[in-house]
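haha ok so turns out i had the wrong file open the whole time. this is the CORRECT one, sorry everyone. sequence first:
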Amino acid sequence: MNTNTNELQQLKMAWIAAREAGDSETQLHLLRDHPEAQEALIDFIAAYHATNLQSVSTETPTPSAALAALTQRAAQTALERVFVSPVPVANLLELRAQRKLTLTHVASGLRLGIDVWKKFESGAIELASLSERQLQRLATFFQITTDQFASLLSNSQPTFVLDRRQTNLASHSKQQSPPRQSFTEAIEKSTMTKAEKRFWLD
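then structure:
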């Protein structure tokens, strides 16, 4: 396939946006209008649906054990074809750099404010404040599992700043980290549009 990484990433972001908006026509157009990327997109879509199936499997009973096993194998195969494991980076900042994405690309693709994503990269967002659905959206964008995203977020350290209000010598070794926030609080304080906020909070 000749489609470069950034072009493919843009197509995937467009598909996710269309999926969340319930726009099936746009989803079909993305596949039909980009034959050179069809194989990669189909793999991505299969993995997307597979992770959704896995997330509700504990709530929705399957008709039979055979069907459950078949579904599980299909989901695992799709995940192995799409997701890179293990992720050879230590935190979210390195993940974005590895994917060669700017802050603007990530924010636009995820429908987040740049300020909110910066908080993710600085480790200021509390992992426990993310719902399974929110975590899944974030992980799917980067083509990694939710566990991998959670680990990278946990490894993202808050940016420490020198406390310059102190005048004694001890102040030179004293550091202060920005307070952690819940994901909801970060979004509510962001300059994101109302539609973007609803996308994440509804």
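The beta strands are 161-162, 175-176.
again sry for the mixup
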